[in-house]
What does this fold into?
Amino acid sequence: MKKGLTIAGSDCSGGAGIQADLKTFQERDVYGMSILTCLVAMTPEDWTHIVRPVELEMIRHQFRTAFPGVNGIDAVKTGMLPTVEIIETVGELLAEVRPAHLVIDPVMVCKGTKEPLFPENTKAMIRSLLPLAEVVTPNTFEAIQLSGLPDFQSEDDLLEAAKRICALGPKYTVIKAARIFDGKSVDLLYDGREPFWIREEKVATAWTHGAGCSFSACLTAELAKGAPVREAFLTAHAFVRQGLIHSFPLNDHVGPIYHKAYAKYGA
Ligand code: PXL
It folds into this structure.
């Protein structure tokens, strides 16, 4: 049994964060483990997010449960890391153990919320985590923060951002662009030399919660099982696409992707 570890926050609504990662690992037949970095609750009135970090000492204890506590973890991903201290600590711990596969999902804001940007967190991520990454998986918003480009208008801009992000250390950069092209979704995988594109009709749904977390979790699971990065990228794309086609609302504010859709309905 291959083992995957996610280092991320709890989304108690169940669609994103640790919950998305573990559901995705399960769907992809990878044993899922987790290190919680923060708890997120939402107000029922307007779904405002309330975020509380986990104590650093407890993050270190959880890390030791996995490394060296569990034999042979095959792949690790990171998700929401709420403070500079936590980003730096997770970076130091990962630098010591050097997992075989490391996917960094540079979560900077939850979809649909208007939280402020944290430029200090972005800088810490660039310093502490990107140099360790095999794959980094920003959405367009996060790619703008990481690359320092002002905005994206075209595929050329996406590629330029990917080049700049790869120059920060990761072997591969994936940019998921559902936002900038009318009716089209464009995913880019860049390995430092050649771009590889997936272009498709956008899935018409407002219920996209957890799409980003689940994408990076699926990618991580495939790497854990030994897939090459391009194949893992294609599977993660198909997994999330099916999840979006079969997504559903929890209330007026939020709707998650359906994590079982890919297994149930195929690609
Ligand atoms: O989708 C980004 C995200 C990641 N992690 C946690 C979240 C969210 C958004 O709600 O709650 C824990």
Residues 8-11, 16-17, 40, 79-80, 107, 110-111, 212-213 surround PXL (CB under 6 Å). The domain at 3-262 is CATH 3.40.1190.20 (UDP-N-acetylmuramoyl-L-alanine:D-glutamate ligase). Strands lie at 3-11, 31-42, 49-53, 75-78, 102-104, 135-136, 172-177, 184-190, 195-201. The mean pLDDT is 95.
